[in-house]
């Protein structure tokens, strides 16, 4: 295809948007409504995911070492843990430090433990973080089997519940977003189909005068793209303004440790990009699928 | 130029539209296709521009065997023939000029050439002064002139017209026929399906009469031959 022809297709696609004013309005509205819904869910899900991630990140394995172990044994255990799959970090915390932390954590009540500084009942501990929080249980079970390990703690019972809750929340979110996307595709492609059925005569005439299918498709392809992008403008504006204000005013009110919203600055851009891409893809897809029907002569 | 060999066409619903036609149309000929409604005229015409495929037999147009052309190549074949219809088939959102220019744009002609040639053919059909008007702003006769201009803009060897005067008053019909005669004089083969008795009887040309899917008459300078 000559560059001049490509320019013609661009020009033609813009003209068609104007020529088919009300049909354009209908298609853009359909895109706007569904993308707004998709956008809101996206914001909710991504934040929920972020919060869940924060909670998960705090999960760690604490391996308490038996007092019978000597320095070499302790080092050997550390090396063995580090060499395991999926380990992110291994920190050694000697029992003196453990006691100091305990006393500090307990504040005034910590004074009661001061006498133990002479004869520390605590153990040396390896604090292990896994790359994937879900691996915590597997890693903990394995370490339990090592020599000189007195006990392994990772919040048994609590962690399993947390993980299953987070998983369910994530899956529900994914199902909702996928479902919404399908609805959007269906709704938008149907609207576009109606606008193109109205133009079936136009396609028929184009074929009669010798336009190839590719030649006919190009302006429709571009038109679908513009419809998708036009339809994404309002949802993006709406979500940007709302989220910016939510982040600015609501975030400082939230004091609960794990609940932290995604920072407005990169997040709004990310959501905008996602919405534009979804709009464009759905617009193009709907447009091409509808034209295809009339090109089978 | 155009040749049909043992052509039969049966539609999926069982209707036999064409039942064994053999015909040869030489370059530069002017042929009327006549016959009662439902006789198979339209199918006969449609097969010439590959809108319909024959069930059996072969059709050659400009040396191409139409039944064997792939669907995707049909538009390429149609670039070499001009078509005119009863309902004009103009793009309603395009001006007269744009409608004619479109046929040249699809074959990626140079813009300068398009401009020159489109004005030339609009002049030939006598509608140059209305080039910027939309079809809805033109009369039936004027719309048909635009359609004719479009059909000849790429200098096809064959022009196929399906009831081109069907929607026009007698006076306008004569004007349109004058344009067709002019086109034919320049060497373009013209095949025209028509119900217009006056035209066929006054502008004497070859007449092919079709009834029940068969050619029942093929005369060098024939009459319309049917009572209306």
Give an overview of the whole structure:
- With 297 residues, chain A is of the alpha+beta class.
- In chain A, 69% of the residues lie in helices and 8% in strands.
- Chain B is α/β, with parallel strands linked by helices.
- Chain B has one domain (2-43, 77-220): Rossmann fold, CATH 3.40.50.
- Helices cover 32% and strands 26% of the residues of chain B.
- Chain B has seven helices and ten strands.
- In chain B, helix 4 packs across helix 5 (140-152) and helix 5 (140-152) runs parallel beside helix 6 (170-185).
- The interface between A and B is medium-sized, with 23 and 24 residues.
- Chain B: Its main location: membrane.
- Chain B: One of its GO terms (biological process) is cell division.
Largest sheet of chain A: 4 strands, antiparallel
Can you count the helices of chain B? 7
**What is the β-strand count of chain B?**
10
Assign a percent range to the helix content of chain A: 55-70%
- Oligomer classification: heterodimer
Structural class estimated from helices and strands of chain A: alpha+beta
The separation of the N and C termini of chain B measures: 32 Å
Low-pLDDT stretches of chain A: none
**Fourth-level CATH superfamily of chain B:** P-loop containing nucleotide triphosphate hydrolases
> Biggest interface: chains and residue counts?
A-B, 23 and 24 residues
Mean pLDDT score of chain A: 85
The total of helices of chain A stands at 9
Q: Supply Rg of chain A.
A: 30 Å
Envelope shape of chain A: elongated
What's the Cα radius of gyration of chain B? 17 Å
Strand order of the largest sheet of chain A: 2-3-1-4
Number of strands of chain A: 4
The string of secondary-structure elements of chain A, in order, is HHEHEHEHEHHHH
Shape of chain B: globular
């Amino acid at each position: 295809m000559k560059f001049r022809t490509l320019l013609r297709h661009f020009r033609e696609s813009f003209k068609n948007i104007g020529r088919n004013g009300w049909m354009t309005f209908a298609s853009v509205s359909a895109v706007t409504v569904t993308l707004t819904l998709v956008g809101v869910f996206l914001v909710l899900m991504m934040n929920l995911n972020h919060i869940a991630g924060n909670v998960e990140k705090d999960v760690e394995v604490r391996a308490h070492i038996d007092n019978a172990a000597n320095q070499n044994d302790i080092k050997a255990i550390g090396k063995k843990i580090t060499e395991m799959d999926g380990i992110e970090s291994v920190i050694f915390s000697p029992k003196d430090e453990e006691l100091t932390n305990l006393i500090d954590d307990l504040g005034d009540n910590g004074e009661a433990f001061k006498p133990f500084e002479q004869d520390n009942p605590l153990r040396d501990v390896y604090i292990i973080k896994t790359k994937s929080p879900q691996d915590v249980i597997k890693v903990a079970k394995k370490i339990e089997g090592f020599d000189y390990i007195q006990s392994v703690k990772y919040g048994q019972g609590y962690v399993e519940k947390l993980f299953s809750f987070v998983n369910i929340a994530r899956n529900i979110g994914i199902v909702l977003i996928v479902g919404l996307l399908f609805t959007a595709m269906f709704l938008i492609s149907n609207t576009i189909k109606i606008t193109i059925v109205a133009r079936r005569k136009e396609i028929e005439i184009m074929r009669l005068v010798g336009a190839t299918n590719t030649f006919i498709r190009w302006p429709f392809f571009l038109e679908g793209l513009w419809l998708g992008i036009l339809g994404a403008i309002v949802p993006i504006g709406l979500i940007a303004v709302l989220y910016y204000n939510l982040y600015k005013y609501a975030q400082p009110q939230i004091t609960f440790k794990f609940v932290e919203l995604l920072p407005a600055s990169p997040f709004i851009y990310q959501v905008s990009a996602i919405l534009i891409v979804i709009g464009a893809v759905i617009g193009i897809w709907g447009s091409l699928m509808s034209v295809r029907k009339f090109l089978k002569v | 130029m155009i040749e049909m060999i043992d052509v039969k066409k049966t539609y999926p619903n069982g209707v036999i539209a064409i039942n064994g036609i053999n015909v040869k149309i030489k370059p530069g000929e002017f042929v009327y296709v006549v016959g009662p409604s439902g006789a198979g005229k339209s199918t006969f015409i449609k097969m010439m521009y590959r809108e319909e495929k024959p069930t059996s037999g072969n059709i050659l147009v400009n040396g191409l065997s139409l039944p064997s052309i792939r669907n995707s190549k049909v538009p390429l074949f149609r670039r070499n023939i001009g078509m005119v219809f009863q309902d004009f088939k103009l793009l309603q959102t395009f001006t007269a000029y744009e409608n004619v220019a479109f046929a040249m744009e699809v074959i990626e002609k140079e813009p300068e050439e398009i401009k020159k040639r489109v004005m030339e053919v609009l002049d030939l059909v006598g509608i140059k002064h209305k080039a910027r008007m939309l079809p809805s702003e033109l009369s039936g006769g004027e719309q048909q002139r635009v359609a004719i201009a479009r059909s000849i803009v790429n200098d096809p060897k064959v022009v196929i017209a399906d009831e081109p005067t069907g929607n026009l008053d007698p006076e306008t019909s004569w004007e349109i026929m004058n344009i067709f005669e002019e086109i034919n004089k320049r060497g373009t083969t013209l095949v025209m399906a028509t119900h217009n008795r006056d035209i066929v009887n006054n502008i004497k040309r070859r007449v092919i009469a079709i009834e029940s899917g068969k050619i029942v008459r093929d005369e060098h300078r024939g009459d319309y031959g049917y009572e209306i």
